[in-house]
Amino acid sequence: MIWLLFDDLAGKGITLGILLKFIYYITITAIPKAMPVAILLSSIMSMGQLSENYEFAAMKSSGISLFRLIRPLLFFVVMLSALNLVFLNNAFPWAVLKQKNLYSNIKKKQPALALVEGSFNTDIKGYVLKFDKKRGPDNNILDNVLIYKTNQRRNTVNTITATKGTISSEEGSKYLNLKLEDGYYYEEHSNRGSPKKERERAPFSKTHFDVYTVNLDVSEFSLENIEEERFKKDREMLSLNQLKLSSDSLKPKWDTYVNHKAKLILSKVSIKAKKKGDSVQPTEARDISYPILDNFDETAQYEILGIARNNVNNALNSFNDFRTDYKYKRKQLNMYDTEYHHRLALALSVLLLFIIGAPLGALIKKGGFGLPMVFGIIIYMIYFFLSSFAINLAEESSISHVWGGWLSTLVLAPFGIYLLVSTSTDRGKMNLSGLIQRITQYFKAWKDKKQVSR
Fold first, then answer.
1. For residues 424 and 418, what is the distance between their CA atoms, to the nearest angstrom?
2. 226, 82 in Cβ contact below 8 A?
3. Phi and psi angles of residue 119, each rounded to the nearest 5 degrees, phi first
4. Domain residues for 66?
5. Does residue 346 share a domain with residue 427?
6. Taking 80 as the threshold, does the pLDDT of residue 223 lie above it?
7. Same-domain check for residues 303 and 447
């Protein structure tokens, strides 16, 4: 991620000092995630080296178990976990705050960086810009450009399409020049609030052009202070206490929103709660037959069914509109709760991965950067993907936010405890050479069988 962002900024007129500061902030944000994998790899390699040189076997013959051997290291790793928690609560939010604001301000200084391919870009006032791809040495050539130009005074929207666009600007200029090639200009001639007949009489005009230049006003992008902090409420920018307070403040608003929407949907189908003291006034006695519609004539039946259909359609439309908004608001609340538990679990992952790595290194009996590196990467990938998967499920309300933050830890913790107990009691064995030999024999037999079948 660091190098992808650096590639976007390098060679774009950004000073070396700003680039180094940007990399410094990103590096700080990477430390809490790098610490667990560093502990995992170092524990596997160090314990594997001891076992490979039979030093661990000599210690066990002297009555020193694995647990007794790693006890000082265990205390040290617990201290590292606590340090990681403090880092996640203080330095990490500060670094994210600085990095995201700096990147946003850099894009404001360089408007071409703010344009995202495949999305509707609304940062430039009065224009909505979309294109398929950016290319060229400076990423200033746009493919398949679509521009909506709004006119607030006339309440019209003009549309410009082009197969290619080239961005250029002069230093200090408040305009960004966009040179469009081979496209069309669609211009509306009637106000969108005008009667339908008037809009149909003169809908729009269409003009083809070979070259057309659009001057985009980017004066709002000129920031005097490139380190100005304009975004401060992102969940990653908050400490654990602030995350808790933000979540607690959002929950009453969420409850009020859901109750309001529920009453609104019920009102669409004319369902009302009966109040205390309400009484049904007696009506003229008559025999009621079932189904109820048989009590009305044909005209009344059509009218009743029409009203019922409209009520149901209105309720369904309201529900469909509410569903999208509901998911978005619920996800925003879930993100704060999940982030809180994810940070706690990430701090504890230093201890968890050490408990897995130390006995695993003693079992595989290999030191150095070979096999231990392979096992370390596999285990960390399992932890990382489980964590990402659980966080996504929690944000979509598929599982609890507590499970979302702690699932990867709860899955791997029994495995680590099993390895630690097995190795300490000398019950754990891992014959890798035999396992590799069996796998090789299996594939060889499968290959021979396939050749015979041919």
1. 10
2. no
3. -130, 160
4. 1-90+239-272+289-454
5. yes
6. no
7. yes
| 298 and 346 assigned to the same domain | yes
* pTM score, whole prediction: 0.66
Angle at which helix 16-52 crosses helix 371-395, to 10 degrees, equals: 120
Domain count, the chain: 2
Separation of alpha carbons 225 and 101, rounded Å: 11
Burial class (CB in 10 A: 0-12, 13-18, 19+), 72: exposed
Tell me, what's the pLDDT at 114? 62
DSSP per-residue codes, 215-280? EEE-GGG--S-TT-------GGGS-HHHHHHHHHHHHHHHHHHHHHHHHHHHHHTT--PPPTT--P
In a domain, 308, yes or no: yes
pLDDT one-digit tens code per residue, 159-210: 889 999 888 876 556 677 888 999 988 887 666 555 666 555 656 678 888 8
Going by the DSSP 8-state scheme, the letter that residue 148 receives in this structure is: E
Tell me what percent of the residues of the chain surpass a pLDDT of 70: 75
Phi then psi for residue 176, to 5 deg, are -110, 120
